[in-house]
Amino acid sequence: MADLVHLAIIMDGNGRWAKARFLPRTAGHLEGLKALKRCISGCISEGIRYLTVYCFSTENWKRPPDEVKYLMALFTNKIYGEIKTLNSLGVSVRLLGNTSNLPPEAVKNLKKAEEETKDNDKITLQLAINYGGYDEIERAVNSLIRDGYKEIDASLIRSRFDNPDIPPVDFIVRSAGEMRLSNFLLFDSAYAELGFYDKLFPDWDEQMIHQIKEDYYKRIRKFGGLA
Ligand code: FPP
């Protein structure tokens, strides 16, 4: 059985969590951030080396301006504000996604967080912000076209992704009962296992990560071959 090296989470249900408590949707995102911290601790305890989280998709710009603004403020302030904790936990931050239309202050702080955590080796936390699977492939192919390639293959495309050194995802899980990928990791999900959980993301904790790991090890991965 292939080890669970790289877990990815589609953090869904923040809005529903807030609505159930008569709170604004933004309160759900803040609670989601707290759940993310518990998930990082859980991954470290379970020996998972890479965690990728879907924070903002290339389609999320369609949300109400106030919600977008709030999320951008979280990306600008919260990660960099947690540098000390991230360093003490051994978390190395990596940015995944199209930075060209993110607020410059957010990009600056996220890049600083990358730089200041780059030597940590307990876990790599890949933050997918303004990320889209189509966009990732388009940017990679366009960079190959600019370099004059006439023929390309899958490994060449992957080599132009934002973080080609990060191994492909093993298990993609989604909270809040939705069962779709929503343009997440389209290329690298080719042979990933998929898991869908009813619990809303703000309610996730370390135990959830333990459960996810157990579920993963029940899967039989064949990568198109035989078991
Ligand atoms: C989807 O739930 C959630 C998002 C689009 C945002 C996820 C972002 C976070 C958890 C914050 C991460 C912050 C940092 C700084 C890394 P939804 O709002 O679509 O939920 P709903 O379907 O119930 O409305």
From TrEMBL:
It comes from the Bacteria. Gene3D superfamilies: Decaprenyl diphosphate synthase-like (3.40.1180.10). The active site is at residues 12, 60. One of its GO terms (biological process) is polyprenol biosynthetic process. CDD domains: Cis_IPPS. One of its GO terms (cellular component) is cytosol. Pfam families: Prenyltransf (PF01255). Binds 2 magnesium ions per subunit. InterPro entries: UPP_synth-like, UPP_synth-like_sf. One of its GO terms (molecular function) is magnesium ion binding. Keywords: Magnesium, Metal-binding, Transferase. Belongs to the UPP synthase family. PANTHER family: DEHYDRODOLICHYL DIPHOSPHATE SYNTHASE 2 (PTHR10291:SF0), DEHYDRODOLICHYL DIPHOSPHATE SYNTHASE FAMILY MEMBER (PTHR10291). Homodimer. This is Isoprenyl transferase. It comes from Candidatus Ornithospirochaeta avicola.
